[in-house]
Write a structure and sequence with these properties.
317 residues, alpha+beta, six-stranded mixed beta sheet, 10 helices, 6 strands, 59% helix, 13% strand, disordered N terminus
Length: 317
């Protein structure tokens, strides 16, 4: 059993757990000063410090003689905007140390860090010999947190489908575009996970062996494949729903245009009759006839009713 956990802070933004065999340093709010102070001890490459300070980096894994530097993106849901955005985590992997750098938005890392501080058995299991098991535990938890977000998207798709076929297709246009944006963002976040984890399995050998965890790391790869497959299905679903919604809107507009066109055609001869009657010329059967108004109205009504009946019979209205 390792001795009592010690925590060290280079500054207020660094949390550290140290055991006789390895050390875990977590940097939830990276700053240039914090990273420079760590660089003196761990000899970070200057480009890696730049990657930690900048955002929207591509997922990658860089191998150096004495450590590995890995960047992975994970989805984060913003309840205010109903948007899924990318959140970065950077990993510095040494033979006997792990340094995690992130934007303080990953509760999974904070939760596991606190558990390791208060639970000696968990600390003994994860912070033992090398960081391979700790990295697996972090990645497995972060990938597991992805599934509830996939479930929310699935629920949104079902809601959109029901609303479309209940006659609310115009109301669903914004919802469809919002869900489609989230799926596209989700796919762009997750698309590189498989290749980066595969590289981690291969390139970690010179620093620490992952032989005993091959099955577990391959399970992570399978998780990424499953997530990618689910996202592919959801992308196809939202594309189909968008096409269906647009077709229904177009169909309704065609019905409206057909009705308006039919009404215009019906009113055209009626208007023509009214125009002829108002001409300043004698009209047979009408001029000086006390029933001339009703005769004209009857003719106009008969023409209108006949045209409506004919259009209905031909299914034009």
């Amino acid at each position: 059993m390792p001795k009592k956990i010690s925590t060290k802070k280079v500054d207020a933004s660094i949390r550290s757990i140290e055991t006789p065999s390895m050390r875990w340093i977590d940097v939830p709010k990276p700053s240039q000063t914090t990273l420079r102070s760590l660089q003196k001890e761990f000899h970070f490459h200057p480009l890696d410090i730049e990657d930690c300070l900048e955002s929207n980096q591509y997922p990658k894994l860089d191998s150096y003689p004495h450590y590995l530097f890995m960047i992975l993106h994970f989805p984060s849901y913003q309840p205010d905007t109903h948007e899924i955005i990318s959140s970065e985590i950077r990993f510095f992997l040494y033979p006997n140390a792990l340094i995690t750098v992130h934007g303080n938005s990953h509760h999974r890392i904070t939760e596991l860090f606190k558990q390791c501080m208060v639970d000696p058995s968990k600390q003994a299991r994860l912070l033992h010999t090398n960081p391979s098991l700790l990295v697996y535990e972090l990645l497995e938890g972060l990938l597991r947190d992805v599934y509830p977000m996939l479930g929310h998207i699935k629920t949104d798709l079902r809601y959109i489908e029901h609303q479309i076929f209940d006659g609310y297709e115009k109301r669903m246009v914004r919802q469809i575009l919002q869900t489609k944006r989230n799926i596209v963002n989700f796919r762009s976040i997750m698309q590189s996970h498989e290749s980066v984890i595969q590289k981690l399995i291969t390139k970690s050998e010179p620093l620490f062996s992952t032989d005993q965890l091959q099955v577990y790391y391959k399970n992570l790869v399978e998780h990424t494949k499953d997530i990618w497959a689910i996202l592919g299905n959801e992308k196809e679903t939202i594309d189909a729903l968008q096409q269906t919604n647009e077709s229904l809107i177009s169909f309704r507009l065609n019905d409206i245009m057909k009705l308006l066109t039919g009404m215009s055609v019906v009113m055209l001869p009626v208007s023509l009759i009214a125009f002829i009657v108002t001409m300043n010329t004698p009209m047979p059967f009408i001029t000086h006839n006390p029933y001339s108004f009703w005769i004209v109205v009857s003719i106009m009504t008969s023409v209108g009713v006949t045209l409506v009946w004919y259009f209905k019979r031909r299914d034009w209205l």
